[in-house]
Here is the input.
Amino acid sequence: MDLPALLPRLARALVLAALLGAPLAAAAPAAPAATGSVAGRVLNVGTGQYLTNARVSVRGASATAFTDKDGSYRLAELPAGTVTLEVFFTGLDPATAQVLVPAGGAAQQDFNLTSVARYGQQGDATVRLDAFVVAQQRETDAQAIATNEQRFAPNIKNVLSTDALGDVLGGSVGEFMKFLPGVTVESDLADVSGVSIRGIGGGMTAITNDGAPASNIWTTATRSVDVRSMALNDIARMEVAKVPTPANPADSLAGSINLVSKSAFERSGRQLRYSLNLIGNHENLDLRKTPHSHGDKLGYKIFPGANLDFTWPVTKRFGVVLAANHSRSFNEQHRTLQSWTSIIPPGSPAGTPVNYANPVLNSLAFLDGPRDLTRNTLSVKADWKVGDNGVLSVGHVASRTDTRIGSLTYTWNTSTTATSSVAGGRPLAWDNTRTLGATGRGTLNNNGTNQLINQITDTSNVGYRHDDGRWRVEAGVSRSASATKRRYFDAGFFLQASAIQRFPVRVSFLDLAPGAAIPGRIEVFDNNDQPVDWNNPANLRGNTANNANLYNRSYTNQGFLNVRRTLGFLPVPAALQVGVLEKRVMLDSNLRSETWTFTGPDGLSGATAPIEPYLMQRYRNVDPGYGMPPIVWMSPSRAFRAYQLNPLLYQQTDAQRVSDRNSHIDNNENIKETV
Here is the structure.
């Protein structure tokens, strides 16, 4: 870990920022006696929320300022005397005020904005409408904030308030990102795992929290940030930028998504919001315990959840935001995967070209994928106004996510070998309505998979901002660290346990139809051309079991300092900014695969031993979808428990030991970079 080496540099940056921020007005050339300044805050009295990026300008002059996250603004170097200030915020009525600017001094002018059309003449948030209109108004306020943010952004970006869509399933950041303009989500079965901008890929899309890079690793070594553990209730809005400014880190080819956290200074009073919910899906709407393939046990499929966020501006100079989320959701995805291959028909003359317009359906994989995800997050953020023009923010987000996977796959394969394995057997034949496999060349595979994936992420962020209307200083340090562990033996199961055909078979797919997920019929025959029941465990034998133990860690440490000077002597708004940034990233991936061969209870009878003791007992008679009959699945948990009692049941060959060792070496990676 190189954080100790980075901290002194970041600490020096913060000290420099504080030194620059406090005495900057004195360090700068003294303002002429005939000038002064105006400062204040802009409030939406209808919602009690201080407004970010409200435009405050001087009528007839180029002087313009935009409010910070706490709604504060400051206009410096204004000519002494009476000036007219104009305030604009999207969705609210513009406001004006005449202010007397004292020579060499500062005036205070706050603005209370409203919308007569939405809040009435009093502008006190008294809404005399039915409940539907009240809910609609909340969405209107949220969208107005996002629209105003886009209007005055220094680059092209889309902004969406997290209140704009109401409640999102499980308070999931990934579910919300589905609706961001120009963003495509990347899914792991039914879970939103990552995002991509402009189709370039998640590894080239930066995800930040208040500008601090996120580090949230999943089970593969990648730059992509996994979003399934992120909660929504401590996020105020999301900003999607495709065009960076010179002040943005240029480490993302596709673009960036910045999650803007809630601030205590955004509100004029305390606010507590909470919700309780039940999460279920249409396929498993049952309050009783029902079979789950993970662990082959009974479990609930409808789970309670809760969200809470508390905003408390304790004083005018100090405030805190506390947010917590708990959710658990179950989903079951059914899908099929067809493999089509173009080959030369058997018996064709030498030199016959491949006819790619007439492929053969040679493999069908049928997947039943039950899984559930538990997400717990807790975030705390404190904002402190250390001076009239400076704000220090400290925040921490802790996420703990557990994913339980019980995927099951049955695969039928006709093989693309055209000739029979026995004399007089049938050769491979096909047309657009059927595939008739060659005798003895087919395969069957009944595969059960169990996984328990624990994901831990902690993100800390310290930021300082000073803005006196002339000088703006921004500095910050952040650390985002995550770890993912995929567990098997200590969780009580193999990753996979599989069974294959006990004797040679021929597989045929019949009644094929364009666009159909599965054939109309699947038939299996032995070498005597007698029908074989592929769903009868007596026709299968144990094959292999394997693990893929994994422990991935990553962190991203960042520190930055930006100094900006407004050039008020020019006829148009202009500023000059310089800055420095250092980011250190570490990725450590440790994957160890292990494979065993089923050798039977005596260590010798793997080809003949029955597999009934290693089949699902609870997860039976479950509708797998697509009109298929209930399948009797292999159970990784029962196979593992039997192996614990009798180590002869599964044994490793020399080739498997060598392969496992090579896999361990090849998949151990430790990568560090500094930018």
In short: The longest strand covers residues 540-566.
